[in-house]
Write a structure and sequence with these properties.
- The protein has 13 helices and 17 strands.
- It is α+β, with helices and mostly antiparallel strands.
- Among the domains are: 106 residues, N Utilization Substance Protein A, Chain:P, domain 4, CATH 3.30.1480.10; 63 residues, OB fold (Dihydrolipoamide Acetyltransferase, E2P), CATH 2.40.50.140.
- A five-stranded mixed beta barrel has the order 4-5-6-8-7. It has a four-stranded mixed β-sheet with strand order 9-10-11-17, sandwiched between helices. The chain has a three-stranded antiparallel β-sheet with strand order 1-2-3.
- A hairpin with a 5-residue loop joins strand 2 and strand 3.
- It is elongated and about 105 Å long.
């Protein structure tokens, strides 16, 4: 190795940031291995590289039983310069690759929870690859939203869930389903959150369908919901566009559990919330015509409210509450009203429930009660054998928003 090689190493140090000493040490270790493969090589040796001239010497060593050096001599082979040149090239290239991989890993290590923007490169049944510039991110099938389509070449924001260190470099795993994605998107659009004036207290998400977030303000002059919505909905609209039309409900946070549960069930109007700390249940009373809205499609609104508040939400209509308090009410079986193939409403029991119990619970209580003319009474509108009439009428009424803001 000569002075030209040393100048090349100095250039690499300036361009790549790898110190000359590190590369020379790696070269010396590699040359020791190369020397020991040669015939008549000493069992112990070390390689010295002159930093000024680039000259290389092999110093053979003799050790005693305790591992101490008792004799050293120069055992540099005659053609070792050629071996050194070939080894130097391989070692330097390998060291550069390792350094670049380490730098890429360090760039993303500890960034779990951040949001990144990439260009979709490849999509198959297992994963989607995002080009982040210097590295690629992996979007597994389990982290993809079912109704989203990822087109090649389009830009996509994703949430970093894990950064793995592999032999081929860092592997960045991202998600489109994580609730943190919505949180980070709001931080990008709402300066008050970054400044600490507005705080995002809780979030519950069903990817691709609906998200609820609870926000509070540390400044009495700042409306947290209004800050997140923006002028004419401009801020929340950017978030909704990024999550491709997913509905976003923004509700004010409250330290009072009953009030928080009431706000979390928006856009439904809630008459009363009774908190039962011993069971962790929030008993919610709503007007009859608000029952279906409070529960939501397939129970989604109630389910998200429970996740947002941390309370188990039990929703009852005023009619159901009155019957229970009267002591002669109907004990409803678990299930829901569905529309059958003929367009009529029928009771669908929950999985594992008794198909007869729904009708028996309400209908049997009144079927044997004779009417004044001697005929049997028809099932009441509040029994499970027929849907509560106010709920059926609710679909034709325009629902007014509750206090707070709900954005779809």
């Amino acid at each position: 190795m000569n002075r030209d090689m040393m100048e090349a190493l100095e250039t690499i140090e300036r361009d790549k940031g790898i110190s000359v000493e590190i590369m020379l040490q790696a070269l010396a270790d590699a040359l020791v291995t190369a020397y020991k493969r040669m015939p008549d090589a000493a069992e112990e040796a070390e390689v010295e590289v002159d930093v000024e001239t680039g000259d290389i010497r092999v110093i053979a060593q003799e050790l005693d039983d305790d591992g101490n050096v008792v004799r050293e001599w120069d055992d540099t082979p005659n053609d070792f310069g050629r071996i050194a040149a070939q080894t130097a090239k391989q070692v330097i290239l390998q060291r550069i690759r390792e350094f670049e991989r380490e730098m890429k890993y360090e760039e993303y290590a500890g960034r779990e929870g951040d949001i990144v923007t990439g260009i979709i490169q490849q999509t198959d049944q297992r994963y989607t690859l995002l080009d982040l510039g210097r590295v690629e991110a992996l979007l597994p099938q389990a982290e993809q939203v079912q109704n989203e389509r990822y087109e090649h070449g389009s830009r996509l924001k994703a949430y970093i869930v894990e950064v793995r260190k592999t032999a081929k470099g860092p592997q960045i795993v991202v998600s489109r389903t994580h609730p943190g994605l919505v949180k980070r998107l709001f931080e990008l659009e709402v300066p008050e959150i970054v400044d600490g004036v507005v705080e995002l207290k809780a979030i519950a998400r069903e990817p691709g369908h609906r998200t609820k977030i609870a926000v509070s303000s540390n400044d009495n002059n700042v409306d947290p919901v209004g800050a997140c919505v923006g002028a004419r909905g401009s801020r929340v609209r950017m978030v909704v566009n990024e999550v491709r039309g997913e509905k976003v409900d923004i509700v004010p946070y409250s330290d009072e559990p009953s009030e928080f549960v009431m706000k979390a069930l928006a856009p439904a109007r809630v008459r009363e919330v009774r908190i039962h700390p011993d069971t962790g249940t929030a008993e919610v009373i709503v007007p009859d015509f608000q029952l279906s809205l409070a529960i939501g499609k397939e129970g989604q609104n109630a389910r998200l409210a429970a996740r947002l508040t941390g309370w188990r939400v039990d929703i009852k209509s005023e009619t159901q509450l009155a019957e229970e308090e009267a002591g002669g009410g109907v004990e409803y079986a678990e299930g829901e009203w569905v529309t059958n193939s003929t367009g009529e409403l029928e009771w669908q029991p929950a999985e594992g429930g008794d198909a007869i119990s729904a009708a028996a619970a309400g209908y049997a209580a009144e079927a044997e009660v004779p009417t004044p003319n001697g005929e049997e009474a028809a099932p009441s509108a509040s029994s499970p054998s027929a849907p509560p009439q106010p709920v059926a009428e609710a679909a034709q009424q325009e629902v007014q928003p509750v206090e707070g803001t709900t954005v779809e």
